[in-house]
Design a protein that fits this description.
- There is one protein chain.
- This protein is mainly alpha-helical.
- The protein has one domain: Rossmann fold, CATH 3.40.50.620.
- It has 8 helices and 4 strands, in the order αβαβααβααβαα.
- The strands form 2 sheets. It has a two-stranded parallel sheet with strand order 1-2. A two-stranded parallel sheet has the order 3-4.
- Strand 1, helix 2 and strand 2 form a beta-alpha-beta unit.
- Helix 1 runs parallel beside helix 2, helix 1 packs across helix 7 and helix 7 crosses helix 8.
- The mean pLDDT is about 95.
Length: about 220
């Protein structure tokens, strides 16, 4: 289970636990500027009852190329139309490929056949590694490139949010009893507060508005 501490991955964790899965959570300290999410991931895993929670350090700062890992300004105040126009500078090169590779390795060690990830292809910011085509391709990689795969055990990557709007995700989390105050979604936090203006904050805000629910996030603006 990939858990960032954000709204989406937390909802997926609650979804999997509700369906009887024993969840081993994996969080990445990859040099992101929004390191507040690491603490959020710990809170979420404890609150929801993950069997284990590993924080893996993978420093992507030497690679850079993203506003999340390099000295590049995080875009603020963008409209939904602008967000969907192209791949933004908050895209971290090959991030989900790297993260899923670690999850695949852990799944082999645990003899698990299921990996959960909170990717979304509807209210997403143009990230190519959040699309169904990418997930299907990675399942193929898992089958070809692991001992479990060539032995016929196989691996299923579950993406329960991939076709849901942000409002639908919020409603699902609410039905599952998620305490959204434990989560963190901001790309550029100011202290412990979310900035309120980055793409992630704006999508989160609008999701709660469209769901008719109050967002418990503490925003700086």
């Amino acid at each position: 289970m990939l858990v960032s501490g954000g709204l989406d991955s937390t909802t997926v964790l609650a979804h999997a636990i509700a369906r009887g899965y024993a969840c081993h959570a994996l969080t990445f300290d990859y040099g992101q500027r929004h390191r507040v999410e690491l603490r959020a991931a710990g809170r979420v895993c404890r609150a929801l009852g993950a069997v284990s929670h590993r924080v893996v350090k993978v420093d992507l700062r030497p690679i850079g190329g993203s506003a999340l890992t390099a000295d590049i300004d995080v875009p603020k105040g963008r409209s939904a139309r602008t967000m969907a126009r192209d791949i933004p500078v908050t895209y971290v090169p090959a991030r989900n490929t790297i993260f899923l590779s670690y999850a695949l390795a852990l799944a082999e060690v645990l003899k698990a056949h299921d990996v959960f990830i909170g990717v979304n292809a509807v209210d997403y910011s143009g990230y190519p590694d959040c699309r169904p085509e990418f997930i299907k391709a990675f399942e193929r990689v898992a089958k070809l490139g692991t001992k479990a795969g060539v032995s016929g055990a196989g691996l299923k990557i579950h993406t329960p949010l991939i076709e849901l709007s942000k409002a639908q995700i919020v409603r699902l989390g609410e039905r599952l009893g998620v305490d959204f105050s434990l989560t963190h979604s901001c790309y550029d936090p100011i202290g412990s507060r979310a900035c309120g203006r980055c793409d992630s904050c704006l999508l989160r805000k609008q999701g709660f508005i469209d769901a008719g629910m109050e967002d418990p996030t503490r925003y700086a603006s």
